[in-house]
Design goal:
With about 500 residues, the chain is an alpha/beta fold.
């Protein structure tokens, strides 16, 4: 770990040592630049300790048990219930017991300079870092500064909510106890996944959503997840709003007042209604940007001002959640690779490929983003939904198929329930988007991502033969349902 003297200078400074920041720093270093990586909390960031990894660890045990219960011969062997303490212990192991020493060792091994502390801009290419002991150091970048500080949970302005000390996603994924009664505000990915996890662990879960679940997905995805949560024992309330919240003393019961006049009393409340950028205390005003704002970028991840122009000198970049392009770890890491490479190329005067799908741009952020929601059933999607494609002006055909009709699905689970949708651009005869809902569909998604990103013609997809009997045979069924009219190719 570095403890720099005042005036330390690097080619690149990356603020935020989460998965995204690590990737930016590593690519810039591999490109021949010196890099300082600044982190105020744990190296590895939100995904490693409070989001992706612990949440999936909490979800996995329940999913495995239910998968066994859906297969004759295995279900008879499942006679006990989930061991909650064993699940929490496995979660702790997944996050290395919140110890980032191995991540810090990786940073050192990659030839990066780790600077622990909180960073604030004081001017162009210059930041101050306040270390945990209160000492302040100044770092200067020769070429670029990259903001990879991520996002935090949004807390809506509801009377009493803040004083009630609700859970955010961080508390939900790191809790040492499973509350007997848990209310969840929000029907997005975090809300749906944590409802699944805590219902599996024995909580009486009440999920409150102003509209349907998973609103950015195909409608059938949210409907199927809702039905599954109800089957798990959760109470799913759609079309309700919380108007007031109160807690009965520290650690006491939480009372929620709903807009229908009813009240809900629980032991803990998780608020999962959106995200806000971690830019409030970065000193953005010193470089002409608005504090607490998302950092808009072009496709090379250069930060743009209010007029959509890069800052003078083209030195500031933003990757990951903080730019609001696609709030997903894998997409942020994709941006990070592009940013690290383009920073090195610009600094060293090397050729750049900045056209669509070039090596130095994040083209996939626009219409080819893959995402898995690890509910049960899983929701795996990439590209545009039918509604989004129509809104974007494409002439489309929508193809639906029941995954349960595929031979591989009947082998995977008795009474397999699932649904697939393929959205086709009729003018170019390529796939614009695919959605799978069902058990174990996450592993189908990369094939769909390749088809969408590669703009593989349907006529060629006919020759990509799925193995039998696997669930991936759904690809053949989607193509057959679409129809093989040679005149249309």
């Amino acid at each position: 770990m570095a403890t720099p003297d005042s005036g330390s200078t690097f080619d690149v400074i990356v603020i935020g040592a989460g998965a995204v920041g690590e990737n930016v720093a590593d690519r810039a270093k591999q490109g021949g630049l010196s890099v300082a990586l600044v982190e105020a909390e744990l190296v590895g960031g939100e995904c490693s300790y409070w989001a992706c990894m612990p949440s999936k660890a909490l979800l996995r045990s329940g999913a495995v048990v239910r998968a066994a219960q859906k297969v004759g011969g295995a279900r008879e062997a499942v006679t006990g219930s989930i061991d909650v303490q064993a699940v929490l212990k496995r979660r702790n192991s997944t996050v290395n017991n919140f110890d980032d020493s191995s991540q810090a060792d990786w940073v050192k091994g990659a030839g990066l300079e780790l600077v622990r502390g909180h960073a604030r801009f004081t001017g162009v290419k210059t930041i101050e870092v306040t270390a945990p002991d209160g000492t302040i150091s100044t770092l200067t970048a020769r070429h670029a500064v990259v903001v990879s500080t991520g996002s935090a949970a949004l807390l809506p302005d509801i009377p009493g909510l803040r004083d009630a000390s609700p859970w955010s996603s961080r508390e939900a994924t790191s809790s040492k106890v499973v509350p007997a009664r848990l209310a969840i505000m929000g029907g997005g990915v975090v809300g749906a996944e944590m409802a699944t996890a805590y219902a599996s662990l024995g909580s009486q879960v009440t999920l409150l959503s102003r509209s349907g679940l998973l609103g950015n997905q195909e409608p059938f995805a949210g409907e199927m997840v809702r039905d599954a949560l109800i089957e798990l024992g959760a109470d799913v309330k759609i079309g309700v709003n919380v108007t007031a919240v109160s807690r009965n003393g520290a650690g006491g019961e939480v009372t929620l007042t709903l807009d229908d006049g009813s009240q809900l009393v629980v032991d803990e409340l998780l608020v999962a209604v959106g995200r806000t950028p971690n830019t409030g205390d970065l000193g953005l005003s010193s470089i002409g940007l608005e504090p607490n704002s998302w950092l808009n970028t072009d496709d090379t991840l250069l930060v743009q001002d209010a007029d959509q122009k890069p800052l003078e000198g083209e030195w500031l970049y933003a990757t990951g959640d903080v730019n609001h392009r696609a709030l997903l770890t894998h997409q942020g890491k994709y941006q990070a690779r592009a940013a690290g490479d383009v920073i090195a190329a610009r600094a060293l005067g090397k050729p750049m490929s900045t056209g669509p799908w070039g090596a130095h741009v994040a083209t996939a952020d626009h219409e080819a983003v893959p995402q898995v929601t690890f509910t049960d059933p899983e929701v795996a999607s990439v590209g545009l939904t039918a509604a989004a494609a129509e809104k974007a002006g494409y002439r489309t055909k929508v193809v639906d198929y029941n995954i349960g009709w595929v031979a591989g699905a009947s082998v995977t689970a008795d009474g397999y329930t699932g649904q697939a949708r393929m959205v086709v651009d009729e003018d170019r005869q390529v796939v614009l988007g695919v959605t799978f809902v069902g058990q174990e569909v996450a592993e189908l998604l990369h094939s769909a991502t390749v088809a969408v990103v590669g703009e593989v013609p349907l006529s060629r997809l006919w020759h990509a033969v799925p193995s039998y009997p696997t669930i991936s045979e759904v690809w053949l069924r989607l193509l057959e349902t679409y129809g093989r009219d040679a005149s249309s190719f």
